[in-house]
Each structure stands twice: as structure tokens, then as C-alpha cells.
Amino acid sequence: MNRDKFDRVSQAWLNGELSDEEFQEFQEALRENPGFRREFIRLANLDSGLRDLAMVEEEEPEAVAFSTPRTAKAGFIALAASLALLILAVGILWQRSGREILVDAAPKTTGVAVITAEAGAVWEKEEGQVLETGVPLEPGALRLREGLAQIEFFGGASISLSGPAEIELVTRDKAILNQGRLKANVPPAARGFEIRTGDVLLEDLGTTFGLAADGDAKAELIVFDGEVVATGIDGKPLSLTDGESASFEAGVTKRQPASSVGAFAGIEEVFAGSGNRDELRYANWKEASLELRQDPRLIAYYDFENLTPISRRLRNRAVSGSELDGGIVGARVAEGRWAGKTALDFRLEGDRVRFQIPGKFEGLTIFAWVRIDALDRNLNSLFLTDYFDEHEFHWQLSRRGALHFASSPEGPRDIPQHNRRYYSDQFWDPGKSGQWFHLATTVSMGVGGVQHYVNGEPVGFSGGTQMHKALDHLRIGEADLGNWSDTLWPDVAIRTLNGRIDEFAIFQAPLTSDEIRAIYENGKP
Amino acid sequence: MGNENSEERYEDFVSLFTRHEPALRAFVRSLVFTWDDADEVMQNTGLVLWRKFDTFDPDTDFMRWACVVARFEVLAWRRDKARDRHVFDEGLVNLLAEEAADEHEVLAQERRALRVCLQKLPEKQRRIVMAAYEPGVRLNQVAAKLGKTATAFYKILNRSRSGLLKCIEGQLLREERGQV
Questions:
Q1: Is the peptide bond preceding residue A164 cis, with omega within 30 degrees of 0?
Q2: What's the CATH fold of domain B3-102?
């Protein structure tokens, strides 16, 4: 690395503009060259000095261009005084308590973006990297081998990324596209969103655009609406608006007719298809839901659609009709798996939906789409019959994150002897808080007829009691979704769910694993 | 320890710490990536310095001692953040820390000279630089606020910093020659 490049790179380091690779080179140069280290220390010193001076200017940012700052000296004294006060306060605290102060170690969020949707996405993960919808992403590189992923930056911009692609997240409103295709959506609030590709910096002035990079300093841009400013190595900004296109090669920007876009295979399809993935998934589920409700095996089916804050009735959409509507108590209307889909939010001790479902069943399937926010209780309700009379059942979540189905032909009498309990393998931990899960359990009579499913896949058992004993028929009667009324042990048994539900179904027969998987595939967010 | 004695001790600490705080912050800044991180390390360093102040020998150099403590704080912070983006490796932190601590007197002179040099920048440019350094701002937002593209804004910033470094160098040379 020569001196000029070092200057450029170290300034870029201060601006937070370096890619991972450039940072490695930068570090290497510092390690090897004492002269560079000296330069760098001086630059960091300047950086710090400038910040000291800026801290004391105490101006409104808007007024920066016009007003006269106070003299730096007066500010410096103010700074020293305020620091002294701060330290004094800390010191007094310390002296009073007579022991060590614990420095506030509350974890700071370092996330800059989040994956909000995926379609057939296959990631190349680094060790320890968690790439799942809903999990905050820290700055660094993401490698999408195939499929589509929608990533929302905390600064407000969102992109649909189409694999194979490599993108580096830099900050909440900055990214570097090394390779691949993306469509960016930048609402006015996120104006200033930046994407760098090769030596070209794109600044978004509130718009939608598509960008494809071939990983070899070549890239294409098309602006669908709004304005994008592209600046290459000549430093001259090139402004592109609605329908305009440009190509980049080795840092040189060049306008081109929009019709010539597409030098990279598949670019149009990405640009055309990726934007409305959410709406498509939602529409797809609606269609599947209309078909599902015709299933003659259904006891009851609740789609949780079109709820309003004053809705107190949860409609049964199965042919069994309004007799089996649920009564909403407490639970609040909230957003479901997709924007526009309603759900119920359960949180407080009173929150529940009440049901009265008569009958005697020789088999069972019960499923729900559930967003678990936390598992605060030893047992957390999904669907529990009141009390636990003969042949009734309880469907719930254990604190350690397992599905739990229980039923007893004898009711609550001599529970250790008779209660058949089936704990699934653990599938949930607090890292999955806020994600939607499809949870299902199928039951056939006799021995060994219980099967749990998570997100369409069968899961094994992590424990249970009396699992070798046969299950007889099942009953429901009065029951709660998201809570437990008329408990066996009134003092100890609060089992309120902490989370959301946006679809719930009960069948009087065990569905096959293929059927469960299909329901999951049609409804996954 | 009597109360009076400890209060005196405390005043000593505050006066030393406030005097050296800018130098110490510059030192930390050369070792970590973002200002948020530097501030976090500084806060911890301040507390540790006060906790260990009893072990400080007043006849020795406070800044030297503080740099040693700060370096350990940076290394401890680094271990927590090693998976994060753009964290210098331990060997480099140690190298930089040693060299920065050796230079701390010159660096303090440079920061003093900076105040003179900043005043020499054209008014408009100076305002832009100050806006970029306000705590908590994001550079591209500042750029947008000033009606500039980020590229143009970075360019002004980079040029200003280079200019300031040159000016500082000249300023120190003149001081050495007794012209100021």
C-alpha cells in the first residue's frame, strides 16, 4: 500500500466507509509500517481533537451554516466543568455505597438490519452467524447462495436480494454490494441510504431502484422512480431519475438506455417479482385458507381475519358455524404474519378466547400459528380445557420451549398414575422471540398415537409420563385459547400465553404429515 | 482513611483526570473503531482509574499510568467485541497503544495547534467540519441536512482533515522556531 492509498483508506476508516477486505489491508499496512502507524495516530488525534471542539459548540444542527459559534475556549471550560461534575457524582456514589460500582453493562443493540422475508433462501453462514427472519443482523458480510431475501435496514430502507449475492452491511443506512442483484425501496424517511458497488457510490434520494453487480467491478443500475445519485472515481455526481439507467465499469459511470438493462441474466425477473413477496404470500395463504375451511374433518377453524379493536367474537369459519365462535376476552388486535393480517395479542392474566365445543372425538389434530414473545411460566397456554375432566386435554408450551400435549381418561384423579403427557423436543429459545411458528399436534387413539410438528416437520419427544398407556376418546367442552380458566390449582397455575396467534384449527382426525407440511407451506410468512 | 483525606484525594483525581481527559480520549480513539465504542471504553477507564487511584504514585506521570489502564480497558472491550466489524487485532492494539503513549506530549501540542488551525479554515468549511463531529450525528444525515451528496461531503471532510494536519505541522514548526 502506498502513501496516497493509505491516506485515503485511513480517512475512509474514520468515515466508517471501509469494506471488510479494505479493513484487513488497512490493518496489515499499520502492522507492517511504523510510518503509517505514526500517521494514523496523528489522524486519530486530530479526529479526537475535532470532536472535543465540536462537543462544546452546543449549536442546533440546523443552525450550523449560519450562526456564530461560541469561542472554543469558553466551551472547553464548560466541558471540563461538566466532566468534573459527572465524575464527582460518580465518586460520591462510590463513596456512599462503600463498594465497587457496577458499570452499566446493559447490552447495547448492535444490529443494523433484519431479514423480514425469505423465499428459497440458502445462506452461506460464517461460524456463529444466525441468518433467520426476525433476527437482528450485525454489520458484516452476508452471502446468499440462492433464493430471495428481503432485508430491512433499521434506517428505514429495504432491499430484496437475489442470490447468488454478497452484500456487506455497514451501518443502518449503508451497504456494499459486492456481487448479486437487488431491488431497493427507500421511503422518504430513509433518504440518504447509500449503496456502494465497486468504486461507485449510490445515494438514494427516496426511490426504488434495481442494481446488479457481477463481482468484477461491473454493475448496472436502473431507477424505477425517484432519484439516485451515482458517483464514480471521477468524483462527478451522475443524477438518474425515473426509468433512467447507467452502467458502471471499473469505477466509471455511464448513462445507458434503460432498454439495454439485462446484461446480467435474470435481472428483470428479480426487479419485477421481488417487491410484493409479502402480499403474494398473504394472498396465497388466503386462497389455501378458503379451501381448508371446507374440510369435513374440521371441528372448528378460526382465521383471525378482519378483526377490529371492538371485535369480541372470533368467527368459526368451518361448516360447523357460529355456534362455535369464540369470545374474545382482553386480548388485543395486533398485526399477524403479514402486514394487513390481523392477530390477537395475549399478554395479561385475563387475555383469552373462550370456547364451548361439545362432542366426543376419536382422533384429533390441533394447529395454530403462534408468535411466542416469551415463555414466562412453567406452562404456557395454547389451548386448554377448563379444569381437566375425564378425556379432556391440554395443549401448551413448557418453559424450556417444548410443545406439550396431555390428556387423562381419569381426569385429574390420581394424576401421576393416569395423566399421559407428551413433551416434544425443545424447539424454542428466547432468541426466537417474535418469530411466527406453525405448531401442530395429531392424536390417534390407542398407544403411541401422538405426534408433534413444528413448522411442518415432525419432532420427537423429549419426555413425558405414562406414554405407554392407551389414549381413549377426547373431549373439549369449555376451553380457552391463550389461557387457562377454572384451574386445578388456583394459586399456582397462571398459564397466560405471552405472544400472538393468528390462525387456529381443530380437526376430529389425525392429519397426515404431508397434510401438515402443506398447511405450513401455504401459511409460512 | 479519614473523610477529609479522601476528599482531598478525590479532588486531586478530578483535577488530573479532567486535565488529561482529551489526551486520553485521543489515545483511546486511535485504538477503537467508532466514537460510541471509544466513549464506552472511556467511561470504563474513568471508573477504573478512580478505583485504582490509591495505587497511583503522584511523583510519576499520570498520563502514562492512565494510558496503561486505558489500554487494558481497550483489550477487555476488544475481547467482548472481537467478532464485531473492524476491530483491530490484539497485537496491533498493543503496538499502537505503546506508540501513542510515547507521543502523548506531542499529540497534546498538536491538539492545541488544531484550535488555531481550525480558525484558519474558511468559515463555511469550518462549519461543515464541526457539524460532522457533533456527538451522535450520522455523517450521511449531516450531508443531507447541508444539502450535499455524501460523496461531496466526505470529500470536503477528508480535504479539511488533510489541510488541518498540514497546518498543525507548520504551526508546531513555527512554535519550535519561536515565531509564535
A1: yes
A2: Rna Polymerase Sigma Factor; Chain: A (1.10.1740)
